[in-house]
Fold this sequence. Notes:
By secondary structure, the chain is mainly α.
Amino acid sequence: xxxxxxxxxxxxxxxxxxxxxxxxxxxxxxxxxxxxxxxxxxxxxxxxxxxxxxxxxxxxxxxxxxxxxxxxxxxxxxxxxxxxxxxxxxxxxxxxxxxxxxxxxxxxxxxxxxxxxxxxxxxxxxxxxxxxxxxxxxxxxxxxxxxxxxxx
Length: 152
Ligand code: HEC
């Protein structure tokens, strides 16, 4: 039996319908995107990750210094502090800008300055004080945690 024009139109309409229903099934995409956006919002910022890395690093060398060992390597790229994206409404304020270089120097001096006559423990505590000096205004939440890094 030959397809009449009507049958062809009917088949075309069915195909169209299937196409549209496919599309409809794929429609939840915007929702997925929305969920992804939410996930991104809850992801720590590049800066938060870097800060947590600095915390972990200092916790580690703190123990080494207490054990009488001399920390020799600094695995973090502190220059990223100048470019890392921040979250939660944080920004490079004038306070940030006035503190960041002093902090980086103090942090690097712990391992770089082997000829320094300033005691290792004191150099370490100076770096941690520099964390605190910036955190006092720029991000107060982690202050109690950072204070515990100080070697008494
Ligand atoms: C020049 C300012 C400045 C210095 C110095 C600084 N911080 Fe931060 N820190 C910040 C800011 C701003 C944030 C918030 C970043 C964000 O949420 O994007 C932050 C966030 C953090 C966080 C929270 C990360 C999270 O999960 O949200 C920790 C922990 C932290 N810093 C530890 C440290 C430690 C330890 C040091 C020193 C080794 C240090 N910070 C030095 C400004 C500073």
